[in-house]
């Protein structure tokens, strides 16, 4: 599941690395567009997370009829939500001047933004199918299919960005077109696997076009909405930072994109593990196995602390080398290396807060953690970053310091809440 999440991030990583060879302004445009795109991705993530939670509970409590119903209604909702996001972002692509980015960045961003907006159409239902397969303990086939989309994306980037094999060089537009085509191919491949797999076929709906069960729709929306808000809050913080980074020029924005790409790629470790933990906690809660639940959560926290310590060491020790693999601009390289030191400091806390939140989600505790993170990020972390960047005079790195402080606070508060709930559930009843 970690590798599955990495496969989606690798699409953006491939675009960033290959566009970085075209120019600094183009790289800044990727930063600007992706900051908006991943906010929509985060909103959609609550939907397929809700499918995962419902299917895992049904699997743990041996209720096969709920499994097929969750898939059918979840896929319908994901198709509709993907269409909504695509149309909304297509409309927004013509008013990118609202965000007051450097003029040269805004001018380059429109067409690339529209290609990514179209990619919501296949991406949202594809990730819903992926969550369904993972909740049934079948993550590997979907993983290999999604890694195949990464390879396809890199090949299409090579052809379309630089104009190889007789094709015209499309630059930034080529990267967007390649991502859209790769995601379309990924959706088709995953859907065919789900329908043709002997292990999956018994759990598929008997009729895809049966009447809608509104109780299932209400369940998925009621559970998915706060999950969407949980995940999107963190991406919204980085989106806000990206927009604010634009006030410091294209060089700062490009450096922020590289640091954010490295941070997001490392973040797929705790995110993938947290999705697995949500499913396992759902299984345990469905079977009322609270001792196993505590052990799984502790194991996940220890695993992610060790993993993020290693990635943090890489960012500190090889920050300049990582930045140089994206761009030849030495000013961008130096600024990125400084940003990556801050990333190394906060990402361990980021991993802990994501793991804690996913465990709470598996226990259906979604509303209070959402409000905790909203207050922490937007009433504390972002304002602190603005003060440090614009009033103290630290510049772009001040925004990263604000985010880092917010991650630390979130990790402490959510872990404390998780401990209290586990203690309450494990207490003997009189």
Automatic annotation (TrEMBL):
Keyword Ion transport: yes
Topology in the lipid bilayer: Multi-pass membrane protein
Transmembrane intervals: 27-53, 74-92, 112-129, 141-161, 173-194, 227-248, 254-277, 297-320, 332-349, 370-392, 398-416
Keywords, sorted A to Z: Antiport, Cell membrane, Ion transport, Membrane, Transmembrane, Transmembrane helix, Transport
Pfam family, one: MatE
Coiled coil: none
Subcellular location: Cell membrane
Domain of life: Bacteria
Major location category of this protein: membrane
CDD domains attached to this UniProt entry: MATE_NorM_like
Keyword Transmembrane: yes
NCBIfam families hit by this protein: matE
Name of the protein described by the UniProt record: Multidrug-efflux transporter
Provenance organism: Coraliomargarita algicola
